[in-house]
Design goal:
The protein is an alpha+beta fold. It has 16 helices and eight strands. Strands 1, 4, 5, 6 and 7 form a five-stranded mixed β-sheet that branches. The chain has a three-stranded antiparallel β-sheet with strand order 3-2-8, with no helix packed on it. A hairpin with a 3-residue loop joins β6 and β7. α3 crosses α4 and α10 packs across α11. It binds iron/sulfur cluster (SF4).
């Protein structure tokens, strides 16, 4: 048996019972793939079920207000994906009369649908013979064939894509692709792969040469940007303030507390003498909790150190449009889509009975 036959047989016997595997419509595959790019299957399942329940088809998703979609997405991160999901749903619903494009190349033209998602929809929903290549597939292939090229370089990716295409079963690309990914997710794990349960053990070069821990090879060239976010939770009786993020940065369109960003960690005396602080409070008296909370938040290419200051004021801030601030009662906070780190801080305040 060839690799494809072996993994297809294994997949039929061992695959997880996941809801999008029952539906196999382009809409269900699309939603599941976009969600699963953000999170592990266990957590992704909850999001997927909520999404499908609220928006059972592309038409409902297209007609939903963006803020509702972002709220449902809250906690998954990469909010651009949720915005693109909404934009593309509108294009399919209104311009393409509810019909998904049926080929890999046509799917690629849609906003937010990259090579991976296009290949997933094309191969699983429309049985087009295109190979799916993600982190799981990189790992399995790199070990199966002992590939020395780093997976995190352009040249490396091209080699893996070609190899994935070479071993693809053109007759059953849906089964082949899902089987290879499932093998990476369940058996060929990043650490301690379960080789004794692997159907490809006899085909695997890294296993034969006892070199599994050397693969996949990485160049380690991806740099991390470190940022310091100083968030101001302002208590104005039973109200606080949010503003909406805009521009080409993380968390576009989400809400957050007034923010003062710095390149280095900032002591409170510096923060409270900064221009941004003055623009918010002027000379007016504020009462600041002496124990701010700092959380580290890891994104793919960024590390954020978010420090939250709890500030009580005896006046109302200017929340006119040019200041970009929205004054809201505490009990409306949960209506706004916020980054996960802000949600965590709010939960913490709740637990401590701070509002
Ligand atoms: S034998 Fe082990 S290393 Fe090789 S593909 Fe299977 S699980 Fe991965």
């Amino acid at each position: 048996m060839g690799i494809s036959e072996i993994i297809a047989k294994w997949y039929h016997e061992k695959k997880r019972d996941l809801p999008w595997r029952k539906a196999e419509t382009p809409y269900h595959i699309w939603i599941s793939e976009i969600i699963l790019q953000q999170t592990r299957v266990v957590q992704g399942l909850e999001y997927y079920n909520r999404f499908i329940e609220k928006y059972p088809s592309v038409i409902e998703l297209a007609n939903a207000p963006l803020d509702d979609v972002l709220k449902l997405w809250q906690g998954l991160g990469y909010y651009t994906r949720a915005r693109n999901l909404h934009l593309t749903a509108q294009k399919i619903a209104f311009e393409l009369k509810g019909q998904f494009p049926r080929t890999y190349q046509e799917l690629l033209k849609l906003k937010g649908i990259g090579p991976y998602t296009a290949a997933a929809i094309a191969s699983i929903a429309f049985k087009e013979p295109v190979a799916l290549v993600d982190g799981n597939v990189f790992r399995v292939l790199s070990r199966l064939f002992c590939i020395q090229m780093p997976v995190d370089t352009k040249a490396g990716k091209q080699i893996f894509e070609k190899l994935a295409a070479d071993i693809l079963d053109p007759v059953k690309p849906d089964i082949h692709n899902q089987a290879l990914m499932e093998l990476g997710a369940l058996i060929c794990l990043p650490k301690n792969p379960a080789c004794s349960n692997c159907p490809l053990i006899r085909n695997c070069k890294a296993h034969a040469e006892k070199k599994i821990e050397l693969f996949p090879v990485k160049s380690g060239k991806i740099k991390q940007r470190i940022r310091y976010y100083n968030y101001l939770f302002i208590r104005d009786r039973d109200y606080t303030y949010l503003h909406k993020r805009t521009g080409k940065d993380i968390w576009n369109s989400l809400y957050e507390f007034p923010l003062i960003e710095s390149d280095v960690s900032m002591k409170f005396h510096k923060l409270s003498s900064s221009q941004e602080w003055f623009a918010l409070f002027g000379d007016r008296k504020t009462q600041v909790d002496r124990y701010p909370k700092t959380y580290k938040h890891q994104l793919t290419h960024q590390i954020l150190y978010c420090t939250f200051y709890y500030i009580e004021v005896g006046f109302t801030l200017d929340s006119s449009t040019d200041k970009g601030l929205i004054r809201i009662p505490f009990n409306h906070l949960s209506r706004y889509a916020v980054p996960r780190i802000i949600e965590k801080y709010i939960d913490n305040l709740h637990q401590e009975g701070m509002f």
